[in-house]
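quick one, 594 residues, struct below
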Amino acid sequence: MQIKYIDGPRLHRAIHAGVNHVITRKDYLNKINVFPVPDGDTGTNMAFTLATISEEIKSNNNKRVFKVADAIADASLNGARGNSGSILAQFFVGFADGIGSFKRLTPKRFSQAITVAKEYSYDALSEPIEGTILSVIADWADSVKNIHEKNEDFVKILNFALEQAKDSLRKTPEKLAILKKYGVVDAGAQGFVDFLEGINHFINKGEIDIVDTSAIAEPVENFEVELSDEFRYCTECLVAGNNIDRIKLKKQLMNLGSSIVLAGSKKKAKIHIHTNDPQAVFTLGHEYGTLSGEKADDMLKQQKDAHGSHEEIAIVVDSGCDLPEDIIEEFNIHMVPVRLNFGDEHHVDKVTITSEEFWNQLQTHPTHPQTSQPTQGDFRRQYQFLTGHYKNAISIHIPGAVSGTLQSATLAAGDTNDLPIDLIDSQNGSIGIGLIAFRTAEAVKAGKTKEEILKITHQAVDNTIIYIGLNTLDYVVKGGRLSANKKKIANLFRINPILSFAKTGIIPVGKTFGSKNKAEKLVKFVSSKLPDGPYRVGLAHGNAPELAEKAQTYFESLGAEKVISTEIGPALGVHAGPRALVIAIQSLKDDLNE
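---
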């Protein structure tokens, strides 16, 4: 069968076939990922990028090829993740621009569009490097150009070009020393060839290729890579504006990091950069338009997950969980960040804003901050990354009655087929979630079975209660959690409410009186609620370490097995306000302590 032209439906089906093939190869691509950094997420990022395209264009049945190509380009920018995903997005933008307004593609028009896509792909990078996905795109595009002049059949053209792309892929280690060192081809380049293979299989067989990934061999045995923290955060955001000067923006980004990919058009641009200052990237992007999809992944942590030693069960929390950084690092707890904004200034919790900056802005910024829960996409990205490195995940979150975070996690878990995920309603917040996650991590480290760990986790939920004491009711009113009239009544009678988390939401569990020594009164109140037997205490303070230090000394004197102290994060801090004190008590009468 010959194919003389490509219209909208044919392009749609071909893209879907290519996307599906890459998704089945995701874990393999993660395993061979050593460039530009060995963070083991190239497969995840490419799969996420392409899956977004497939999802957003699934109902697009336009017969005009340029309409489908435009939809693919727009979807690719929305979903672009990582270095290779961003290059792919720019490839599709170039392909759409190269098509122009043609309703059908002849081989000649297809070749011209692919050539533009190749040029766009190179232009997206500040420092294009051969031996990567760029080389394979270029060689594939050139082979299409060479063969179409002698042949008008897309089947033969694409079959020939695929073989040239495979040959180009085999040569990537000859062009890039780090690939040769570890005995692998470039992961992004492999992903592009996988995409082409999916398309070609569909064209030749008329079916979507399903690959048995269990038969895919390891590229090399147990290779170890050198970890680097030169630029720690893989930072991305989408900029929507008018007449975006991408040349100027790319030059400015070069002062902030490396591995820069700037995909898009004058109206929409996707920034990808490795940097130590994600907030500077977001601030710069905001100068060109409205930001969305801000994220900053810790590549050092990803490298450890991909190539370091760890347990088989991953623990996931959101940044509504407060824990000291040393515990998060030691027990390899994965955190999906909450986003917050002060007016037009956007931040990624615990990544792009320091604690000192948060508390300063909370008290001085004219606009009270707003927080937004992690999206389904945020969790899906995290879960998909973990699929290649863990056998199970336990995801612990704030109650659904307080936030939609648990719902986002639940929806994302439903989309993740390769990783069993157990979702836990913590019935808690802040350091309370922290103690539950900590106890779960101890069970994982102790080598307990998954069933035993889940039982201990549920015991920790039942055994943990949190007490929140506020220095002022101003911020809880600003955040909309308390009416101004109730604040007036409380202030009139000098009532200091003590709040707690429950499955149904935030509830009052007690009160103290007087305008002085509020924290000390809270500590005394909580000390009357201590359980029999061994227990531990978690403390979180609102930019008032001296309050936590006094409380820690006191609870240690009462015999607490362990006292953990940290700061209140923005998720609760926007409502609790400065000098608030949060105390969580956890009984250790559980199966781990037997």
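The first helix runs from residue 8 to 24.
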